[in-house]
Amino acid sequence: MSETRRYDQPRLVTIAILALMLAACSKQASPPDQATVSASASSVAASSVSAAAPMTLPISINAVMVGAIDHASDPLFGVGNAMFGSGKLPKTDADWREVQFHAYQMVILGKIIQMPGTGPRDVEWTSKPEWKAFADSLSTVGMDILALTEKKDAVGFQAAGNKLIDVCEGCHLAFKPDIPTMKLRHQTYQGESTK
Ligand code: HEC
Q1: Both ends of the chain: CA-CA distance in Å?
Q2: pLDDT tens per residue, range 10-25
Q3: 173 CA to middle of ligand 1, Å?
Q4: Domain locations in the chain as residue ranges
């Protein structure tokens, strides 16, 4: 009896350890397995993504300027300018919503342009602290404008518009070449209100 116990106890301990190891093994094994499955499921995209690769834009910063930042800023300047006869004063809730969406865009775009895109000087520009500061200011002024849209405070847009143009011009003075790298310049478009 006592002999059996002496024999059984280590055996039980061994079995328990084995069970624990197995449990540990299967726990460790499952996340990589899942990762492998999802990586192969989303095939090309997943396999080309490296954890260390910094995020980049699929277009140039020049294109972001013309296609997004310039486009989003125009209706924002328009509210402040409306009091001087040009631009567009929002009247209905829908008008204000539209202005608010452009404020959201400005907030986001200030962060977007901290990533380099396909332009020849994008990496150089975005690596500079001064660039990051100007870009962050775009988001900060965008947040101020967002608050104005929530209060429907059209008068406040005059000062906010001045702050916004200071950010655009400050960064342009510091960075913008005379001829844009991708030769993309401000374009007038349907619905443009201030020019
Ligand atoms: C962080 C810096 C920065 C900020 C902020 C910035 N820009 Fe730019 N912008 C540039 C640079 C640099 C270029 C030239 C890009 C190139 O040559 O590849 C440019 C180009 C442009 C262009 C195309 C070239 C032209 O002269 O027509 C427009 C339009 C433009 N920006 C509008 C704006 C407006 C409007 C704002 C503010 C709401 C603004 N940008 C804020 C850096 C900035």
Answers
A1: 101
A2: 444 444 444 544 444 4
A3: 10
A4: 2-48, 61-175
